[in-house]
Design goal:
about 500 residues; alpha/beta; 7-stranded mixed sheet; 6-stranded mixed sheet; 16 helices; about 35% helix; globular; Aldehyde_DH_dom; Ald_DH_C; EC 1.2.1.-; oxidoreductase
Length: about 500
């Protein structure tokens, strides 16, 4: 049985703990590894190592930090398929989905390679007579990231490359459900030439997280996960005077106007709703059909019914299993609630099993129509391959529906009308908007900008906002008196 190592003080080490968490393969729930719950001494050692490494890393020239990221990016591209295969085996994701997971992380590393331009300050000459004012951007210190199971490559790569490129050191606490992929990322980062102590990786649960949230040497906390945990982490971190950015739940709506391209709408919504088994915070879980477009709902359900879950290396599989039995039980419970509360179940994936892998966490694609806002399947984030279809008469009603939802992560509108698209993007209270694009995840030179209960904090992930999150600004006001300029025949300048 593989025991997942930790990265502490530049070495991959075995924990001395007696507490372990099983890492299981979601296709059959067999145990493939054990993740240690780091001891208090190991946590302290990792934090102390990161604090010591910061003293020298912050002095490394910014272009040299960028070169580490360049080497890291090259290694990630070289090993993308290997990482994706490992990721598939511990998450159940299809290989194509896993390749996308890794690639989106690589794109953030490419943004970290641009750190010299992102670290530039500002200058104004003569803010007053003979007085200049200028600012520098400087790193914070030791930062930490707590990442979820659903994107074990992309989300760690959202965090530590940007933080480290900005001059900080970083402690990563990946999900205990799939820690093998983050450890592989750490191995390649060390191969890229990262100095000892710049990155630490520890494992565990709430006890280890609480250590990171309360330790006085941790300056900033990044988190992606559920709403209750996000609220807890944000409050605990800020109560201990730390910066925090916490990305939490979502209920993403796609609004379909009657003038939209029907074939494109159906094709895009199939993957956006049940792809990755719905286990992504930008999944479209609610389709809002405006006017006559509601006539397309049954056609959409028919197309979704053609999607078949399967193994990671099955090229015909549309998505894999849910991450664990608890997730499956929760999704099945919400599907049953939808039926009990009066929604019409056009497609029911509750009884799906994969022959030969009956012990896996399988749920087939599921579609409801006649969903209302008081139903549990609408109010709760299902995080499974379930699409809720609703109908309204006007665009204004659709906007009101979306804006009344407590979440504001992502949304999209399908329409041929520029005026309708303009009105929607301007009035909708959601941080990331797609126009004829189902899942509007921004590229890393922008920032990931969820709103409302989808995000707790001020500055978002990657892009320019990430640099601001992981740095402080120092402003200098200087004055030099011309009377102090040295003069005299003995002043010479040696230019050689």
């Amino acid at each position: 049985m593989q025991i997942v190592p930790m990265l502490i003080d530049g070495e991959f080490v075995a924990s001395q703990t007696t507490q372990f968490i099983d890492v299981t393969n979601p296709v059959d729930n067999s145990v493939i590894a054990k993740a240690p719950c780091a001891t208090a001494e190991e946590m302290d050692r990792a934090i102390a190592s990161a604090k010591e490494a910061f003293k020298s890393w912050r002095e490394v020239a910014v272009p040299e930090r960028a070169r580490v990221m360049m080497r890291y990016q090259a290694l990630l591209k070289e090993h993308q398929k290997d990482i994706a295969e490992l990721l598939s085996q511990e998450t159940g994701k299809t290989f194509a989905d896993a390749m996308g997971d890794v690639w989106r992380g690589i794109e953030v590393v490419e943004q970290a390679m641009n750190i010299p331009a992102l670290m530039m300050g500002e200058t104004v000459e003569n803010v007053a007579r003979s007085i200049d004012c200028y600012s520098y951007i400087q790193p914070l210190g030791v930062c930490t990231g707590i990442t979820p199971f659903n994107f074990p490559a992309m989300i760690p790569l959202w965090m530590f490359p940007m933080a480290i490129a900005a001059g900080n050191t970083f402690i990563l606490k990946p999900s205990e459900q799939d820690p093998l992929t983050p450890m592989r990322l750490a191995e390649l980062f060390m191969q890229a030439g990262a100095p000892k102590g710049v990155l630490q990786v520890v494992h565990g649960g709430k006890e280890q997280v609480d250590t990171l949230l309360t330790h006085p040497d941790i300056k900033a906390v990044s988190f992606v996960g559920s709403v209750p945990v996000g609220q807890y982490i944000y409050k605990t971190a800020t109560d201990h005077m730390k910066r925090a950015q916490c990305f939490a739940g979502a209920k993403n709506h796609s609004v379909i106007m009657p003038d939209a391209n029907k074939a494109q709408v159906i094709n895009q919504l199939v993957g956006a709703s049940v792809g990755a088994a719905g286990q992504r915070c930008m999944a479209i879980s609610v389709a809002v059909f405006v006017g006559k477009s509601k006539e397309w709902i049954e056609d959409l359900a028919q197309e979704i019914s053609k999607i078949r879950p399967g193994l990671w290396n099955d090229e015909q599989a549309g998505f894999g299993p849910l991450i664990n039995p608890q997730s499956k039980a929760r999704v099945l419970g919400l599907i049953q609630k939808g039926k009990d509360e009066g929604a019409t179940c056009l497609l029911d994936g509750s009884d799906f099993t994969l022959p030969g892998y009956e012990a896996g966490n399988w749920v087939g694609p599921t579609v409801f129509s006649d969903v209302t806002t008081d139903m549990a399947i609408y109010k709760e984030e299902i995080f499974g391959p379930v699409l809720c279809c609703m109908s309204v008469d006007t665009l204004e009603e659709a906007i009101t529906l979306v804006n009344n939802n407590p979440y504001g992560n992502g949304t999209s509108i399908f329409t041929a009308s520029g005026a309708a698209a303009r009105k929607y993007q301007h009035e909708v209270e959601v941080g990331q908007v797609g126009i004829n694009v189902p899942i509007p995840v921004p590229l890393p030179f922008f920032s990931f900008t969820g709103w409302k209960n989808s995000f707790y904090g001020d500055l978002h992930a990657y892009g320019k906002q990430a640099v601001r999150f992981y740095t402080e600004t120092k402003t200098v006001t200087s004055r030099w008196f011309e009377d102090d300029i040295p003069t005299g025949p003995n002043l010479t300048i040696n230019l050689r």
